[in-house]
Amino acid sequence: MASERHAQAEARIRAAMEQLLGGDIPEGLRCDIKSLSILSRVPRATLYRTYPHLKQEFEQRLGRVRETGGEPDPGSKSTDSRRTSPGYGGGSHA
Fold first, then answer.
1. Do the Cβ atoms of 19 and 41 come closer than 8 Å?
2. Max CA separation in the chain (angstroms)
3. What is the pLDDT of residue 76?
4. Rounded Cα–Cα distance for residues 33 and 35 (Å)
5. Is 55 among the domain residues?
6. Tens digit of each residue's pLDDT (9 = 90 or more) over 60-85
7. What is the dihedral of CA 9, 13, 15, 16, to 10 degrees?
8. Distance of alpha carbon 28 from alpha carbon 92, whole angstroms
9. Lowest-pLDDT range, 2-16, 26-40, 71-85?
10. Which one of 26, 33, 35, 42 is least enclosed by Cβ atoms within 10 Å?
11. The domain containing residue 25 runs over which residues?
12. Helix, strand, coil % in the chain, rounded to nearest 5
């Protein structure tokens, strides 16, 4: 039974990985490990402890997509620019 649950969880992680890397990112999520965990219904701690090979595969594939100029998460560019903008993260907003 445990091996069946393990196989089902791995299949859900792989399906979520394909969805995110394919650009089909539900509103409110990003192309990242947290969203991978949410979509696959596998707790993030379990993903890190039990499926580190899938986490690594996801990060490597995401890196390759970005190296070739692709961006599966179009919202990440605007988020990144906000983080580097003056005043982001506190300070005066006058």
1. no
2. 59
3. 62
4. 5
5. yes
6. 999 998 888 877 776 665 444 334 44
7. 130
8. 27
9. 71-85
10. 26
11. 2-67
12. 65, 0, 35
